[in-house]
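Q: Please design a sequence for this.
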């Protein structure tokens, strides 16, 4: 009876850790594998970067719109406390924004039953709020001109 050599199931021919062909193959990647990985990475980055750029642009536009809205609300709030429209253009700077308020057109008196004016005259006013090198808002509103001074 021929003697059988006893080998464990883990010790097979060609699987020796000292075999240089197996050791070199397990230690690294082929050039083709590296190139495929770089191509996949390049495609992924090509998809992601435009999305990031769009997100940053939209964030900046939203911040500018919020700032313009706050400044416009503040300027109109100041006008409400005066209860009188400006008779000539006014301008100023608030919070990094420039604003310009100017009366537009002729006053529109409110007519009573007999055709006589009653109440305050309303003047259309244009408020333009802008950021330096950025967007601008233009708002139209009606403001009371104020009652004329009574002459003796």
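A: Design:
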């Amino acid at each position: 009876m021929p003697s059988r050599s006893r080998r464990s199931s883990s010790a097979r021919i060609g699987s020796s850790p000292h075999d240089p062909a197996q050791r070199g193959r397990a230690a690294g990647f082929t050039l083709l594998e590296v190139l495929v990985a770089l191509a996949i990475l390049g495609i992924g980055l090509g998809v992601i970067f435009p999305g990031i750029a769009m997100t940053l642009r939209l964030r900046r536009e939203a911040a500018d719109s919020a700032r313009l809205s706050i400044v416009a609300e503040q300027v109109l709030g100041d006008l409400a406390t005066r209860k009188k429209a400006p008779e000539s253009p006014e301008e100023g700077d608030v919070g990094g924004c420039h604003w310009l308020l100017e009366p537009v057109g002729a006053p529109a008196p409110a007519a009573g039953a007999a055709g006589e004016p009653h109440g305050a005259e309303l003047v259309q006013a244009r408020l333009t709020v802008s950021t330096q090198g950025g967007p601008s808002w233009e708002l139209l509103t009606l403001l009371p001109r104020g009652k004329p001074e009574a002459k003796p």
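Q: Thanks. Anything notable?
A: The CA atoms of residues 57 and 148 lie 49 Å apart. The mean pLDDT is 78.
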